[in-house]
Amino acid sequence: MRLGAEVGLGIVLLLPLLGWAQVYRWEDEGTLHFTNTFDRIPEPHRSQLGPAPPVSADKADEVAPEPSTTMTRIPYTPGSPIFVSAHIGGAGPVTLILDTGADRTMVSPEALGRLGIATTDAPLAQIRGVTGMGQGSVVQVASVEVGQARVGPLRIIAHDAELRKADGLLGRDFLEHFTVTIDSKGQQVTLTPK
C-alpha cells in the first residue's frame, strides 16, 4: 500500500515537468544547437521543428532563478560525455556530465556531503531516468556555477546514479537559462546567457 502511494506521489510530482520538458535541437554548418525556447531558433530552422509548445501554467508561476550574464566555454572531447567542473554554493568542484535529457541537476549525496551540503532532512521525490525509477532528495542550493555561468537559487536532486568519473548530471533546470552551443569542430560547448 505504501509503495503504491509513493509511486502515485512520484507521478504527481513529475506531471508538472512534462509540460515544459521540450528541448529543440538543430544543426547549423556542423554545429549542434539546443534550446528550450522556440524564439531562440533561427528562422530558417524553425520550419523543420513545427509549432512552439504551449506554455505550462505551472511553469508560468515559477520564480526563475537568477542566471549569470557572462558567456562560458567548456572544452570537450567529441565522442565522450561532456564533463564539466561545477561549484555548488561556491564550494567544490564536483564533476558533472552535461545532460540535455535530464530535467533536473542531480548530484550524489556523497559529493554534496563533501561540500558540506546536508541531504538527510530533505524532502523525498521519485525520479525516473534511463535506468528506471529511483528515489532522491530535493535540496535547495544557493547556486550552481560552471565557469562564469551561474544559476541560483536552484532545487537539485541528491541521488547516487553510480556514474563513472562523475558526481552527477547538469540538467535542463540549469541549462535552460543559456543558449547551449555544441561546436564539434572547435571541441567546445558555449553557454550564452539568454
Structural class, please?
alpha+beta
Low-confidence spans? 1-21, 50-63
CATH superfamily: Acid Proteases
Q: Helical region count?
A: 5
Looking at the overall shape, the CATH architecture is Beta Barrel
Which CATH top level class fits? Answer: Mainly Beta
Mean pLDDT: 79
Give me the count of strands: 15
CATH names the topology as: Cathepsin D, subunit A, domain 1
Number of domains: 1
Q: What overall geometry do the principal axes of the alpha carbons give?
A: globular
Gyration radius, to the nearest Å? 17 Å
| SSE run | HEEHHEEEEEHEEEEEEHEE
**Kindly, what is the distance between the CA atoms of the first and last residues, rounded to a whole number of angstroms?**
45 Å
Q: Strand order of the main beta sheet, please?
A: 3-11-10-5-6-13-7-12-9-8
